[in-house]
Inverse folding.
């Protein structure tokens, strides 16, 4: 007989581990034996030391608090929410280890333990999950890294990227010539088009090929002169392939024939018309996976267009690194290098376009998240320019020069994929293209008059990082700020208060606070609710301790941990949580093809939600530290 | 002696059994009483004309709904109103294991026994079932009934009660009580929602003292 309710329970359970590893038939069988139970707030589901019930439970809606006595009274061990499993007997214990109380109105599904055990006895995935989750559940929420590993172990959807079977990309514009021209003409044609290979054809049918290497060999032999006709030296037959050839096949053909170019013809034989040419270089580019290769590509770029291409390849590389779950600190380091190279090269190109060399030395600064080196995705540009003080009579002229340079930079970066900053926090804005003494004055104002706007700006400008130019200028500015801050502590209290504005969604164990209106209604704003509060906290604490050498949030926390022994563990956890959140956001951003800021919670797996939630605990604790240290309630 | 108009009908055994059980039924405390949350999907809203397409019912005891203790029937009907299909989604020749009306009656009576029936706007469901019983020359349902719509009103402050709409739909009720929507507009799904609503309402009515069964009927 059809049982719609059992089906609904099935639909719910199959989203969650370990049920997702069960066969449909087995799971349905369990669902038909289920009970639906409603608990009022504070109603007890089971008590510690009571013998196990015949059923175990899954929270359908609401939350159940698990607690057990400790030397400091009753300690909450865990809060189980939607999809969490509780009261399952995994070990040989015969009584409950914890007391389960409804934290709010809760609906739970009760499943018979015996039937479940029988049906899953043979299922390794299920037992693996139960063992790992049992092991990780009893840990403190702080042991985030470990549980993350446990979770990733049984993530069944991890797929390995398969390389080499993708279609090889070839050049469609093929430079051809007839066989009756001289090799000199051929060589000049190759020079003109900057190509390494000339296809010799007749009516668009390939009859021969002439590469750089062939020309060199011809000349080296000394048997031919510049007027020798191409048909005497061209290489035949032409090795051809069809347009749907993949990368691996191409490599094999090039290797077996010892050649560097493949002519692509309509059906892959030399009898049909030419549709393209594929070089060894194309293959290397299509792999494009070494950061070294990309670095070279960026450094060799002579046009913004090339930089743009190189940078989009960098993004592909980033995606692969994230898919492979490399540690974020490593990813950030690699991308920091590439980003430095990108800015460097962009600046070189911009300077080349200027009529004169810079009148004084200058430095290019990245601000905000880019200054903190936490930005992996394409975002807005936030940058500033600082130039040396000069005694010239016409300071306006100097400023105009750098504004023009900054304008070129901003335009180029825009072309590469970085949007203009909507708040105009860019070096091309006269407000943020200043001499060293002007900048010093500006920072002094921000420090001495902590108005709300200034505090907001300081969040961006205190996180500056040197990108290009004269590093001593930046050091001068940092020294100035350091000295100012030592005498003006009040700004830190205001910054602390600002950092506490966005409270984490920690009080909502069950639910994330989602946006209640606007375009992103019902989405979780990970930047606003989790990432920004952590970096704000790190900034205040780091500035307060005089840590100015790094701007990176995670590194700031690590530095804080090193000098603040009582809070060492907390800061280390913050550092980790921040990296986890950032990685999360970047991954989401890649998947959603946007900034990754707004997260559709429904699209998350249970494991992901759990991971996210655990990041909020250190955030709440660090905000408490801020509150106490800077007495924010008094301002 | 019998008056000619006092003609006693001959009922089939299953009906006799159903009817006679009520005499023996004893009242239990609220927590041990089996309630039946019930919902029907019909061809329309006209009690005289429209017919039952499916019946969904699920048993409640205390705070617990036992999934296996349920009834889900699809009934063969000749009368069919295409207009209501978009709501309940049951097509006349749908791929359901349909049973005859008389079999549906027998199974329903067997399932509900003498228990109290709970429904949202239960009056309608009882009326269409009674009409079906009448067509098969049977008596009316004898079970006591409770309406979640009416019960819910009791949760409201008297001042607000005045403002409440007459018809408080199941959707509105689930939203107010934060009940996850199961299969809305299937008899079983609606019965499930009604069941959870009933448990929630009882909990709230019993907020300060223990609720007694008879209080539900006041």
């Amino acid at each position: 007989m059809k049982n719609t309710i059992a089906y609904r329970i099935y639909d719910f359970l199959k989203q969650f581990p370990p049920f997702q590893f069960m066969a449909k038939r087995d799971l349905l069988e369990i669902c038909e034996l289920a009970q639906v139970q409603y608990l009022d707030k504070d109603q007890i589901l089971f008590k510690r030391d009571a013998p196990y019930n015949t059923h175990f439970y899954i929270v359908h809606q609401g939350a159940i608090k698990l607690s057990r006595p400790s030397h400091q009274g009753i300690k909450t061990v865990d809060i189980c929410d939607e999809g969490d499993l509780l009261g399952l007997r995994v070990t040989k214990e015969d009584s409950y280890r914890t007391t389960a109380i409804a934290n709010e109105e809760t609906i739970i599904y009760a499943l018979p333990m015996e039937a479940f055990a029988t049906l899953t006895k043979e299922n390794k995935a299920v037992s693996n999950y139960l063992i790992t989750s049992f092991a990780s559940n009893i840990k403190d929420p702080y042991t985030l890294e470990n549980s993350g590993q446990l979770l990733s172990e049984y993530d069944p959807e991890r797929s390995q990227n398969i390389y080499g079977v993708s279609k090889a990309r070839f050049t469609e514009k093929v430079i051809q010539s007839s066989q009756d021209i001289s090799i000199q003409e051929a060589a000049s044609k190759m020079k003109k088009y900057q190509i390494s290979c000339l296809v010799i054809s007749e009516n668009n049918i390939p009859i021969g090929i002439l590469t750089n290497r062939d020309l060199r060999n011809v000349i080296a032999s000394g048997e031919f002169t510049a007027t020798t006709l191409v048909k005497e030296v061209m290489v035949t037959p032409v090795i051809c392939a069809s347009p749907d050839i993949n990368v691996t096949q191409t490599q094999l053909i090039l290797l077996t024939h010892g050649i560097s170019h493949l002519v692509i013809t309509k059906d892959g034989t030399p009898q049909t018309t030419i549709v393209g040419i594929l070089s060894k270089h194309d293959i290397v580019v299509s792999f494009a996976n070494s950061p070294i290769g990309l670095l070279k590509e960026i450094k060799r770029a002579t046009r913004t267009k090339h930089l743009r291409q190189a940078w989009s390849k960098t993004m592909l590389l980033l995606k692969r690194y994230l898919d492979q779950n490399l540690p974020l600190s490593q990813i950030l380091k690699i991308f920091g290098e590439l980003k430095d190279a990108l800015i460097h090269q962009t600046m070189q190109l911009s300077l080349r376009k200027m009529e004169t060399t810079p009148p004084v030395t200058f430095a290019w600064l990245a601000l905000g998240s880019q200054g903190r080196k936490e930005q992996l995705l394409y975002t807005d540009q936030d940058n500033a320019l600082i130039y040396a003080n000069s005694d010239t009579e016409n300071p306006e002229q100097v400023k105009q020069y750098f504004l023009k340079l900054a304008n070129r930079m901003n335009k180029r970066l825009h072309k590469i994929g970085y949007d203009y900053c909507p708040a105009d926090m860019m070096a091309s804005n006269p407000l943020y293209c200043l001499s060293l003494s002007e900048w010093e004055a500006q920072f002094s104002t921000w420090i001495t008059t902590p108005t709300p706007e200034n505090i907001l700006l300081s969040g961006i400008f205190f996180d500056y990082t040197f990108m290009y130019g004269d590093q001593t200028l930046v050091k001068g500015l940092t020294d100035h700020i350091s000295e100012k801050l030592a005498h003006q502590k009040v700004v830190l209290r205001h910054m602390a208060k600002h950092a506490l504005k966005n409270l984490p969604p920690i009080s909502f164990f069950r639910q994330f606070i989602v946006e209640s209106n606007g375009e992103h209604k019902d989405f979780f704003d990970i930047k606003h609710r989790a990432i920004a509060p952590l970096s704000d906290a790190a900034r205040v604490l780091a500035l307060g301790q005089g840590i100015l050498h790094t701007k990176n949030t995670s590194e700031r926390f690590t530095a804080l941990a090193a000098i603040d022994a009582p809070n060492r563990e907390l800061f280390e956890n913050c550092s980790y949580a921040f990296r986890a959140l950032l990685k999360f956001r970047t991954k989401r951003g890649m998947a959603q093809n946007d900034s990754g800021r707004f997260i559709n919670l429904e699209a998350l797996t249970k494991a992901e939600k759990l991971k996210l939630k655990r990041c909020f605990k250190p955030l709440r604790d660090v905000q408490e530290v801020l509150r106490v240290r800077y007495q924010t309630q008094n301002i | 002696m019998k008056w000619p108009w006092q003609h006693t009908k001959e009922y089939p055994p299953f009906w006799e059994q159903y009817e006679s059980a009520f005499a023996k039924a004893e009242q239990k405390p609220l927590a041990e009483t089996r309630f039946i949350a019930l919902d029907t999907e019909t061809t329309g809203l006209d009690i005289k004309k429209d017919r039952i397409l499916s019946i969904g019912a699920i048993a409640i005891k205390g705070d617990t709904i036992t999934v296996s203790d349920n009834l889900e029937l699809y009934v063969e009907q000749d009368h069919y109103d295409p207009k209501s299909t978009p709501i309940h989604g049951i097509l006349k020749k749908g791929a359901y294991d349909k049973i005859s009306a008389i079999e549906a009656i027998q199974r329903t009576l067997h399932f509900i026994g003498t228990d109290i029936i709970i429904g949202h706007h239960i009056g309608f469901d009882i009326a269409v079932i009674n009409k079906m019983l009448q067509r098969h020359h049977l008596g009316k349902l004898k079970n006591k009934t409770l309406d979640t719509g009416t019960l819910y009103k009791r949760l409201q402050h008297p001042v607000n009660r005045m403002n409440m709409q007459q018809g408080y739909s199941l959707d509105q009720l689930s939203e107010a009580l934060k009940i996850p929507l199961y299969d809305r507009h299937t008899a079983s799904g609606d019965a499930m929602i009604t069941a959870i609503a009933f448990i929630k309402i009882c909990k709230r009515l019993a907020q300060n003292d223990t609720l007694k069964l008879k209080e539900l009927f006041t």
